[in-house]
User: Which sequence fits this backbone?
């Protein structure tokens, strides 16, 4: 459709269109990279326009003017999210921050809670039916346009035509300003890549093939995407698409075939990135753009099975409260999409959320895992909403955990130099036991090499990893799940209690070098439970004493036969030459496991009820060990 032929009275210059704006107007401006730069410049250049209130989600062009006192006398800026370019102005009190969940902003417009007199938007040229596309800015732009009394649209042939509910008919627009110019481009600043890679490594462990992803605003969530290149058939339902998605699209990592809501389509509300990204989404039916009242609605999000929300934070306190929008009293970003997606992922079948953040800020001077949120910091996400928290030091799982457990989970993923301090504060606040040992102050990234996974002959998959201080409660549950006979075969007496004090003795001995414990974890519903433990401890002769216990329903499936060579390899790394084990004479199954691995083991029979086995690593069997009948020692 040719606008000049169809509605010549609506086609005007930017100056003429802007002259229609009355003083005192409330103006909405399209979001982020879709903002109409030419119209904004014309508005600022018109000295007649005075006392105007501007609402915008993400602002870029206006950041060029906020240091001008004359501009601030004429325009009041109210932003739903503080972009990087607006952060300095926010700190200086030159703009106003409007905290709101993204899913609810459209209703604020349509209900006239936030009244709008004018909407300045950018659209593609109309098609032959008279429909323009909002392109890379649909989120709150479409509701803002629909709620405004007057709509002025910059018609830019560089604006992509995107698929979805993002079309606006020419009859809905009051004035058209044809003007071609490049769209705003924005690429996240590269920060500490090593930290981002380590965080991505842990996030990768939580994301299964076929999951549907939401990626939040910011450089870190986007950097994490590069760690998912080995995944298959991922889907996307997210607020914003960035350049970080492009490699996953091109390598067919993202196929959307497993999605339960709108399979085959990437669901999003806006794009922010480079011209390369804009050309990729242009007329691409793979993408389905909708406004934020759909994309960010938790009940809509929940219709995606296995929805994983990945977002960032400024700091997390020891109880799990999350601050995302302020540094103390200084407003830094915004609530954005985090809460909507956290709650939606919680309701999703098989879904969950991940809060990812570096362990420190200010060049390592301060911890982002804190005893309490900073004075003035806003609680954007409550402690009841958080599931996983990930730093470059590991994964903390908070859902369903008590304050005591949360403290231990979060302290062990804090930077090593802050762990003891966090535990000390938690003790003073009565969050944890007064005798609680702090997590090791080492960087335990090497423990990742000790993780493994095996599929048993009954089809169940078991994950093995080192025992951590935060496992105390799970370890306790494991002990009390065992039958009396199993406990007797392991401890040589009918141990009745597994107290906190006993658990502390276990942690005190685990240094992951001279003393090591590996646990086996089986999936049960939405969580994992311990079903096996294998340990060795330095016994002072160059050998380590080794012992195992496996829950009865997993005995006879080869668990110990997998753990034994695993512990042997770790022990070798740490200078041990062999194992020693005490085994009850009646525990023939365990004796067979040891003999199979160490056919030349020396067996010493004392006058008591047990054997002592002395096993040298250099004489261990090289053949694959077959499952034993039963496993505990």
Assistant:
């Amino acid at each position: 459709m040719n606008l000049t032929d169809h509605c010549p009275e609506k086609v005007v210059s930017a100056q003429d269109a802007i002259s229609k704006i009355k003083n005192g107007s409330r103006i909405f401006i399209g979001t982020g990279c879709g903002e109409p730069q030419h119209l904004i410049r014309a508005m600022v250049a018109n000295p007649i326009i005075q006392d105007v209130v501007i609402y915008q989600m993400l602002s870029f062009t206006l950041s060029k003017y906020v240091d001008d006192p004359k501009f601030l006398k004429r325009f009041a800026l109210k932003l739903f999210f503080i972009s990087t370019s607006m952060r300095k102005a926010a700190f200086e009190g030159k703009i106003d921050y409007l905290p709101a969940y993204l899913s609810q902003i459209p209703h604020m417009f349509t209900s006239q809670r936030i009244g709008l007199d004018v909407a300045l938007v950018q659209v593609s040229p109309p098609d032959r039916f008279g429909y323009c596309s909002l392109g890379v800015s649909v989120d709150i732009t479409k509701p803002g346009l629909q709620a405004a009394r007057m709509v002025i649209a910059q018609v830019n042939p560089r604006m992509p035509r995107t698929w979805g509910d993002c079309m606006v008919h020419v009859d809905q627009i009051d004035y058209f300003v044809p003007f071609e110019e490049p769209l705003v481009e924005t690429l996240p600043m590269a920060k500490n890549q090593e930290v981002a890679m380590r965080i991505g490594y842990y996030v990768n462990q939580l994301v299964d093939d076929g999951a549907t992803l939401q990626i939040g605003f910011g450089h870190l969530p986007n950097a994490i995407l590069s760690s998912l290149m080995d995944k298959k058939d991922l889907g996307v339902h997210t607020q914003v698409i960035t350049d970080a998605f492009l490699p996953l699209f091109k390598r067919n990592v993202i196929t959307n075939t497993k999605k339960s809501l709108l399979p085959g389509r990437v669901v999003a509300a806006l794009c922010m990135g480079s011209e390369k990204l804009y050309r990729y989404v242009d007329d691409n039916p793979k993408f389905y753009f909708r406004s934020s009242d759909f994309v960010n609605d938790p009940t809509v999000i929940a219709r995606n099975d296995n929805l994983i929300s990945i977002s960032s934070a400024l700091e997390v306190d020891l109880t799990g409260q999350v601050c995302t929008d302020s540094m103390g009293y200084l407003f830094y970003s915004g609530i954005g999409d985090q809460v909507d997606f956290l709650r939606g992922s919680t309701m999703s079948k098989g879904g969950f959320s991940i809060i990812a953040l570096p362990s420190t800020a200010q060049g390592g001077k301060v911890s982002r895992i804190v005893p309490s949120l900073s004075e003035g910091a806003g609680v954007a996400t409550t402690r009841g909403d958080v599931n996983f928290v990930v730093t470059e030091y590991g994964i903390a799982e908070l859902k369903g955990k008590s304050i005591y457990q949360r403290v231990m989970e979060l302290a062990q993923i804090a930077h090593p130099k802050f762990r003891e301090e966090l535990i000390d504060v938690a003790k003073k606040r009565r969050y944890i036991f007064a005798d609680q040992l702090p997590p090791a102050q080492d960087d335990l990234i090497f423990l990742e090499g000790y993780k493994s996974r095996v599929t048993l002959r009954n089809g169940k998959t078991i994950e093995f990893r080192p025992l951590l201080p935060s496992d105390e409660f799970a370890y306790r549950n494991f002990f009390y799940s065992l039958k009396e006979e199993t406990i007797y075969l392991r401890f040589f007496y009918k141990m009745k209690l597994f107290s906190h004090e006993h658990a502390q003795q276990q942690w005190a001995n685990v240094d992951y070098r001279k003393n090591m414990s590996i646990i086996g974890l089986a999936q049960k519903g939405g969580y994992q439970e311990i079903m096996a433990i294998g340990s060795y401890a330095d016994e002072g002769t160059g050998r380590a004493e080794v012992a195992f216990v496996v829950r009865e329903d997993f005995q006879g499936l080869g668990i110990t036969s997998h753990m034994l060579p695993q512990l042997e390899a770790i022990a070798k790394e740490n200078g041990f030459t062999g194992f020693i084990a005490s085994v009850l004479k009646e525990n023939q199954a365990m004796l067979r496991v040891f003999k199979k691995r160490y056919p030349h083991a020396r067996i010493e029979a004392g006058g008591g009820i047990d054997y002592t086995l002395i096993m040298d690593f250099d004489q261990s069997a090289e053949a694959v060990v077959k499952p034993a009948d039963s496993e505990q020692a």
Summary: The first helix runs from residue 3 to 6. The chain is about 25% helix and 25% strand. Residues 623-633 have pLDDT under 50 and may be disordered.
